[in-house]
């Protein structure tokens, strides 16, 4: 069964929905959690998005999450394992309409930096937000909203923004120690 993609304008309530979900996860997992980040399009004011909250959780021990499986299920999350990305534990919340995607990694995993870099680049570059929003609308129209085709249609723009984000991040993290 193919999911249909519906996108719309930024909704300020997404930040509240993120915080509510993050609070639930912190209550469930306690000190196992090192950080929970709001990522994806719903984390960027002004960016059109599917109304699905993406959370990135950094944990001490990925394998230990299995001990909390029933707690995740009580919160409405479906355990998907790595789901195609090595070193990740992935969860979906919501059945036919997904409300949340939860990506869990051990702190320091390269995917953490990649996701945060992409989000932070968009937050700092309104022109990239406009470019990405246009690409999403074009992909939605070209794919008739079929999820896999939608992803494929916007992939070139995502890759371009990711490359710009990497260059931007590298330029902004230069060693700033005074020279002798």
TrEMBL record:
Pfam families: GrpB (PF04229). It comes from the Bacteria. Gene3D superfamilies: Beta Polymerase, domain 2. This is GrpB family protein. It comes from Ahniella affigens. The lineage of its organism: Bacteria, Pseudomonadati, Pseudomonadota, Gammaproteobacteria, Lysobacterales.
């Amino acid at each position: 069964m193919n999911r249909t993609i519906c996108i719309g304008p930024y909704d300020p309530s997404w930040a509240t929905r993120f915080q509510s979900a993050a609070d639930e996860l912190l209550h469930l997992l306690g000190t196992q959690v090192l950080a929970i980040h709001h990522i994806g399009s719903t984390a960027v004011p002004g960016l059109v998005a599917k109304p699905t909250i993406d959370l990135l959780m950094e944990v001490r021990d990925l394998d230990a999450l299995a001990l909390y499986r029933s707690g995740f299920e009580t919160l409405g999350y479906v355990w998907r394992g790595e789901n195609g990305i090595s070193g990740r534990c992935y969860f979906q919340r919501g059945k036919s309409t997904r409300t949340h995607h939860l990506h869990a990694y051990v702190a320091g995993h390269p995917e953490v930096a990649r996701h945060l870099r992409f989000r932070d680049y968009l937050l700092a570059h309104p022109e990239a937000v406009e470019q990405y929003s246009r690409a999403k609308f074009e992909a939605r129209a070209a794919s008739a909203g079929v999820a896999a085709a939608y992803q494929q249609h916007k992939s070139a723009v995502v890759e371009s923004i990711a490359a710009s984000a990497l260059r931007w991040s590298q330029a902004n993290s230069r060693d700033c120690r005074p020279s002798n």
